[in-house]
């Protein structure tokens, strides 16, 4: 740079400054990261994104799968203006587009889960000029039955509290009614003796 014209040096510095001020164009992907679903059921693989550029016809979405036990990455789904389902392989007739790009949603629905569907599902979105960014990942575990989560415990606790509350409320009402009935009987007996 030394020995060059001052005009060239100024243009170079101006270019560096403008590049630093220009926003970085990168797509950001949002997924649940970890998901558990029961064998034989359907699962929604949610993937949303944000982009500096408006969504247009250049948007592409690629879903792939890496088996948990190893093996090559496999194609799951592709979207570019229209959804393209796999024509062969493990996901043929088992995956459907459930996204809405205008709402920044590029989710898919996977039908009839099998144990060999365990693995990592990747969601890659390119929205030119935003083509860089991390790929979204979902670790899917297909299980025989869903584990009892904190939400299930909370729901069970609420049901138990409501049932106990109703039981004790009925018991209290019955005790009051019995007490009133006993007082009425005593009053009736005492009236008989006074007559």
From TrEMBL:
**Localization in the cell:** Membrane
Every copy of the Ig-like domain together lies at 23-141
Q: Where are the transmembrane segments?
A: 151-168
The UniProt entry's sequence similarity note says: Belongs to the myelin P0 protein family.
The secretion signal range is 1-26
Instruction: Give one Pfam family, short name only.
Output: V-set
Q: Which GO terms describe its cellular component?
A: plasma membrane
Keyword list (alphabetical) reads: Disulfide bond, Glycoprotein, Immunoglobulin domain, Membrane, Signal, Transmembrane, Transmembrane helix
Which terms under GO biological process does the entry name? cell-cell adhesion
* Biological source species: Muntiacus muntjak
- Per its UniProt entry, which superkingdom is the organism in? Eukaryota
Q: What name does this protein carry? A: Ig-like domain-containing protein
Which InterPro entries is this protein grouped with? Ig-like_dom, Ig-like_dom_sf, Ig-like_fold, Ig_sub, Ig_V-set, MPZL2_Ig-like_dom, Myelin_P0-rel
Q: How does it sit in the membrane?
A: Single-pass type I membrane protein
């Amino acid at each position: 740079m030394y020995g060059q014209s001052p005009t060239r040096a100024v243009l170079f510095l101006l270019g560096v400054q403008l590049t630093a001020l220009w926003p970085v164009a990168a797509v950001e992907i949002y997924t649940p990261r970890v998901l558990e679903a029961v064998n034989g059921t359907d699962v929604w693989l949610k993937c949303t994104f944000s982009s500096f550029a408006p969504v247009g016809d250049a948007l592409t979405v690629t879903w792939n799968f890496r088996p948990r036990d190893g093996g090559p990455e496999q194609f799951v789904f592709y979207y570019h203006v229209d959804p393209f389902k796999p024509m062969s392989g493990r996901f043929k007739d088992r995956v459907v587009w459930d996204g809405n790009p205008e709402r920044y949603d590029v989710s898919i629905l996977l039908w009839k889960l099998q144990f060999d569907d365990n693995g990592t599902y990747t969601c890659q979105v390119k929205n030119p000029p935003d083509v860089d960014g991390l790929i979204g990942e979902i670790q899917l575990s297909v299980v025989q039955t869903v584990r009892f989560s904190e939400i299930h415990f909370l729901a069970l606790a609420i049901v138990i509290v409501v049932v106990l509350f109703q039981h004790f409320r009925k018991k209290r009402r019955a005790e009051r009614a019995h007490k009133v009935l006993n007082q009425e009987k005593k009053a009736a007996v005492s009236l008989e003796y006074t007559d």
